[in-house]
Design goal:
- Residues 68-215, 236-365 form the GAF domain.
- InterPro entries: GAF (IPR003018), GAF-like_dom_sf (IPR029016), PAS-like_dom_sf (IPR035965), PAS_4 (IPR013656).
- This is Diguanylate cyclase.
- The chain has 13 helices and 17 strands.
- Helix content is 46%, strand content 24%.
- The relative contact order is 0.05.
- The protein is α+β, with helices and mostly antiparallel strands and 499 residues long.
- It starts with 11 loop residues before the first helix and ends with a strand.
- It folds into four domains: 1-31; 51-215, Beta-Lactamase; 247-364, 2-Layer Sandwich (Beta-Lactamase); 396-497, PAS domain (Beta-Lactamase).
- The protein has a six-stranded antiparallel β-sheet, with helices on both faces. A six-stranded antiparallel β-sheet has the order 13-12-17-16-15-14.
- A hairpin with a 5-residue loop joins β2 (100-106) and β3 (112-113).
């Protein structure tokens, strides 16, 4: 090969030969790196990994659209049967009691529900149950032989099967079963993909259940907040007791809920019978727990029988214990599982507020009734005293007139009204003194004369009328009444007829 250090010294022929030599070496390298024939196994593996990643990404996106565990299981089965070499796929989801809550199976079509007894059989006697109990995947490459060997009960009699658990955090909530008609049809990459699908399904179902729990908790909180706003003055403690029992059974899954309230601050809590509700509960035994929680102002848990537990919460209002709330649960455990103590405390606070409000309204009604009775009694006494004063006024031989501080007639006896003015007393009350004098002057010519009076603080007048039947005169004695006890000053006049 010519020296390539100094290309400028080469001729054209030498450069062309050098280029041909480089092209030949390059072609030889290409043939060594990419031999003719089918693709390398690495290419196939890369394509399989890309397909699996695409499937998992698509499942992750689809799982975001639904927040119902059953809908998520349907989506997973449809995606698995379409995108995987699977002839049939089954999902069994467990409930809180570790029994099948939902069971779906799909084979060349839309998922369908699996009968409950068949789902229970898979869990108790099939490979799905083994996967749930041990928390790991089960791979049966020759189902016919493996069923006989391990005495399993499966939906199919032959082929290949993978059962992998569906986990939520540290708990196993279900199992995913993938089936193929052929034997030895699954590889290690298939197992990894199926376990990845089950893991994504577990995360999605966990998020959906958490969303349902939060939504249900919000509903319970709103119901408890509305509990304190639904009661009015027309309701009774019996209505509150009935509502407490309903909330205890529906919201907190208790067998019964009993309300105990102190009639007075120093008395023992008494059971409040629910209104319009027949209730069978150990009231006496629960009353002991209510007494303890009211005295200690703390939560009390008591086993009433071998299969009945009572949880009693104090009803505290303004720092004082006004009673207790007792809830009964089946089972000997000290604390029922899944109990939301924050909601229970909110329930007790709302109940205490409602009971205290109704007790306050009851006391206000009692005080109002006593006040009304006292007012009626005082009114009758005043009326009787006024009647006696009226009798005394009307029995006097002279006219009597009582004027207020504005010189208006406040009261007059019949002598003054009928004989002097000539009107009914009701027609004169409220008239000014000047108006009364004008009424007298219109009846007949009238003259007024001021008379001396040796007594201090009094005035004497004489009024003379010229009537058709003769002259008639009155001596008027005025007596000022000073203001006292919040009453304004007034004036009392006595009209005595002269002979």
């Amino acid at each position: 090969m010519p020296d390539t250090e100094d290309l400028a010294a080469l001729t054209v022929a030498e450069l062309v030969a050098h280029v041909r030599e480089l092209r030949s070496a390059n072609a030889q390298l290409r043939r060594q790196l990419h031999p003719a024939g089918p693709p390398l196994a690495a290419h196939a593996l890369a394509e399989e990994l890309i397909r699996q990643t695409s499937l998992l990404a698509r499942l992750g996106i689809e799982f975001r659209d639904d927040l119902e565990p059953l809908a998520l299981a349907q989506q997973a089965l449809q995606s698995v049967t379409i995108n995987l070499p699977a002839d049939e796929a089954t999902v069994v989801l467990l409930g809180a009691d570790q029994q099948p809550a939902h069971a779906l199976t799909a084979a060349l079509g839309a998922p369908r529900l699996l009968p409950p007894d068949r789902a229970a059989e898979l869990i108790t006697q099939g490979s799905a149950g083994w996967a749930l109990r041990h928390g790991s995947s089960v791979v049966l490459l020759d189902l016919a032989n493996d069923i006989r060997r391990f005495q399993l009960r499966e939906l199919q009699a032959g082929g290949s099967l993978i059962a992998t658990p569906i986990r939520q955090s540290t708990a196993t909530i279900g199992v995913l079963i993938i089936y193929r008609l052929a034997t030895h049809a699954f590889s290690s990459s298939d197992l990894i993909l199926i376990e990845s699908v089950a893991a994504q399904l577990g995360v999605a179902i966990g998020a959906a259940r958490l969303h349902q729990q939060h939504r249900l908790r919000q509903q319970h909180i709103l119901a408890l907040l509305n509990f304190g706003q639904t009661f009015t003055a027309s309701h009774t403690l019996g209505d509150v007791a009935a509502q407490c029992h309903t909330i205890a059974t529906e919201t907190f899954a208790a067998r019964w809920g009993l309300l105990f309230v102190r009639p007075s601050p120093q008395s023992q809590p008494a059971w409040i019978a629910p209104a319009n509700l027949a209730l069978e509960a150990p009231v006496a035994a629960a009353g002991g727990a209510a007494q303890l929680t009211a005295d200690s102002q703390s939560v009390v848990t008591m086993a009433l029988t071998d299969d009945l537990t009572c949880i009693a919460l104090p009803l505290i209002h303004d720092g004082a214990s006004i009673g207790g709330l007792a809830l009964g649960y089946a089972g000997p455990q000290a604390t029922p599982s899944g109990l939301d103590w924050n909601l229970l405390e909110l329930f007790a606070r709302q109940t205490a507020t409602v009971c205290a409000t109704l007790q306050l309204l009851a006391r206000l009604r009692e005080q109002t009734q006593l006040l009304e009775e006292l007012i009626a009694e005082r009114t009758n006494q005043l009326q009787r005293s006024r009647d006696l004063l009226r009798i005394v006024f009307d029995s006097l031989p002279e006219g009597v007139a009582l004027l207020d501080e504005s010189e208006r007639l406040a009261a007059a006896n019949t002598v003054f009204a009928n004989q002097i003015v000539g009107r009914h007393p009701r027609e004169l009350v409220g008239k000014t003194y000047a108006h009364l004098l004008r009424m007298i002057e219109r009846a007949a010519p009238t003259s007024i004369e001021l008379l001396p009076d040796p007594r201090a603080g009094r005035q004497r007048l004489r009024i003379r009328q010229m009537l058709p039947d003769g002259a008639r005169s009155y001596v008027i004695e005025r007596m000022d009444i000073p203001a006292s006890h919040g009453q304004p000053a007034s004036r009392l006049e006595f009209w005595r007829r002269e002979p």
